[in-house]
Amino acid sequence: MLRGSILLAIASIGFSAVQASISSQCINIRLQNTWLIADCLTGSGTTRIQSSVYLQNRITNHESVLEWQVNGNFASSCTGCTIVSPATLSCSCRPTGGQAVPASINLEDHIAVYSGFLLSNLSGTPTPPVTASSISFPSDPSWQVFYGNTSCYSTNTDTCPNTGVGSETTCSQYPSVSTNDGVLNCFAFRWPVSVPVWETFADFKVVAPSGAYKFQLFDTLDCTGGVKGTIAPNELGTCKEFRKQMYAFSAVPLWNAQT
């Protein structure tokens, strides 16, 4: 379980978003799952911070050619990925209806170092965080979510007439949602049926071996309208009651992560 402050102020860093290359500023450049991780100079002497970028949300496999794309999901059709010096992602990627072939992409085309932070500019010029987390990238970034006191929501009012909550705090013994990579920016579980129906929940439990997350809960399907509930690191592993139906959640990494 995490103890102490999760944030370490880096007072001496100038956060003016000065861009520098990965190869000139970073050491220990590596790939874990689909995260690019490195220890990079902050611009304050020899001080370095560890940070990471989630490549799965930035690169796609287009017929065995790796290309930049928001929410690209390249790992669904690429295997054996490694980082080739200095900062090239190399994989074996399948085309539609064919055998996998070697594919690579230069990560420095859209990822750079900003005041020590690895950040992608694929969606525009990034602004580095004001503070840096003291938490290292976890050896196991996986987590599992367990819903409890579930109901449903549908745009068809006859489909889910009762959206109340039960009187007990109970979470399923089986995971409702899980991931090995740790990223889920906004998730609402839609039932696999023809009519639009989503599962809702009034109780919520998270099991995360690393303890390096907080979870935010929402009463809208698209995670708008403000956070309505949270699971803090010290609440992981506990079935928490919210006394209202929640529709969606986000998993927020507590290390230096651009998701």
TrEMBL record:
Keywords: Signal. SMART domains: CVNH. Residues 21-120 form the Cyanovirin-N domain. Residues 1-20 form the signal peptide. The keyword Signal applies. It comes from the Eukaryota. InterPro entries: Cyanovirin-N (IPR011058), Cyanovirin-N_sf (IPR036673). This is Cyanovirin-N domain-containing protein. It comes from Dactylellina haptotyla (strain CBS 200.50).
